[in-house]
Amino acid sequence: MIRDAHHRGFTLIELVTTIVLLGILAVYALPKMDIAIYGQRGFHDVLKGALQFARKAAIGKRRQVCVDVVGSTVSFSVATTSPDSGVVACPAATALTLPARDANCGSANQVCAPGGVVLTGSSFYFDAQGRASTGVVFGSTGQPNVTVAQETGYVY
Question: FRET label pair with 90: which of 4, 26, 63, 102, CA 20 to 30 Å apart?
């Protein structure tokens, strides 16, 4: 039988077969997907991006940017005085608003670990040249470490 050019499309058998195959795939694939991994990776990426932004803000504003770690929350703030006056205590700084707000946090200058994610790392600051006051390694559950190099401030 030769099909007419006006009769194009899928047959009912082809559609039913496709739906059955998708159903079988869903029965086996969906239980194997671990949603927690997506939250862990999302936190890793947000933290790394926020640290990179803080370093660039320190260079752009020519001020020290403090990174304060308390429990599972990382806060960012900018020193109010110039770098010529020496090291500034982080509590005497103003909040650094991050470009993307973290849905897990109540403040626009914080990154918070979601439930089930354990954060390790310590507080430090970026100077006006973008260098870190100390080398820091941030670890989070199920993800590779985020490292801040002391000499360059580079975040990787």
Answer: 102
